[in-house]
Write a structure and sequence with these properties.
It contains six helices and 14 strands. By secondary structure, it is α/β, with parallel strands linked by helices. The chain has a single domain, classed as 4-Layer Sandwich (Nitrilase/N-carbamoyl-D-aminoacid amidohydrolase), CATH 3.60.110.10. The protein has a six-stranded mixed sheet with strand order 5-4-3-2-1-14.
């Protein structure tokens, strides 16, 4: 089993300007100093967290999916983040998981943020996405999903090794963000990554960032704080396996099925 090099981007976003955001990410990723296996972008990375789906949505044949494919091929890495997608007459806050060969999978955000009326615009997803990449099982989720531990729960059979959340999580609730991200790592005996944005959006919400990568014990491996940039770290497979051997709590977990 191999190590996994993860790069995540914490930055401000241009409001409702997909082309400007794609160009901005190109500029940031051009500065990657080493090869990487996985590049993680924030939630709604082309628009900011917006309910204007009718004017901002793209399709699965649109410019951003093409850009993700080109970026994955250029860096020979999986690239993931969420965008507004229109499909079959509905709108989705869709996390796209794009591989270097151009193939992709996706996850539609399950828990829509009712405090912002997200449920009135977007259709919720109903299934997890579980990906295997470079010998790691990875469970990607979106923002508000972080507050729901049952949806995030690791299970004893084929457990995931890394859980990640892409987000636009406002600074006013940063204590919850940091606390819950650490809890998800500890309770699931898995590495955890939360990728947030910084800056102020058009509606006036402030984002401090606080993106972070944690090991399975809840220790911080990378803390982005409020910095703007790309952060890279290599997760050591031997460290995760050794801890799971010493502390085999997943073996005592409850098997269950989620419905609806």
């Amino acid at each position: 089993m191999s190590d996994l090099t993860v790069s995540f981007v914490q930055t401000a976003l241009h409001w409702h300007d997909a082309a400007a955001n794609r160009a901005h990410f190109d500029q940031l990723l051009a500065g990657l100093a080493q090869p990487t296996d996985l590049i993680v972008l924030p939630e709604m990375f082309t628009t900011g967290f917006s309910m204007a789906a009718a004017s901002q949505a793209e399709t699965m044949r649109g410019d951003t999916v093409a850009w993700l494919r080109a970026t994955a091929a250029r860096h020979q890495a999986v690239v993931t983040g969420s965008v507004i997608i229109e499909e079959n007459g509905g709108y989705y806050n869709r996390l796209l998981w794009v591989r270097p060969d151009g193939s992709l999978s996706y996850y539609d955000k399950r828990h829509l943020f009712t405090l912002a009326g997200e449920q009135h615009t977007y259709t919720p997803g109903g299934t997890h996405l579980m990906e295997e990449w470079r010998g790691w099982r990875i469970c990607p989720l979106v923002c508000y999903d972080l507050r729901f531990p049952v949806w995030s729960r690791n299970q004893p059979v084929e457990p995931y090794d890394l859980i990640l959340y892409v987000a636009n999580w406002p600074a006013v609730r940063r204590t919850a963000w940091m606390t819950l991200l650490r809890a998800r790592a500890i309770e699931n005996v898995a590495c955890a990554l939360g990728v947030n944005r910084v800056g102020r959006d058009e509606p006036g919400h402030e984002y401090r960032g606080d993106s972070a990568l944690l090991d399975a014990q809840g220790n911080y491996l990378v803390e982005a704080n409020s910095e703007d940039g790309v952060f890279t770290h290599t997760l050591r497979r031997a460290d995760l396996d050794a801890f799971r051997t010493r502390f085999a709590a997943l073996n005592d977990g409850d098997a269950f099925e989620l419905r609806g």
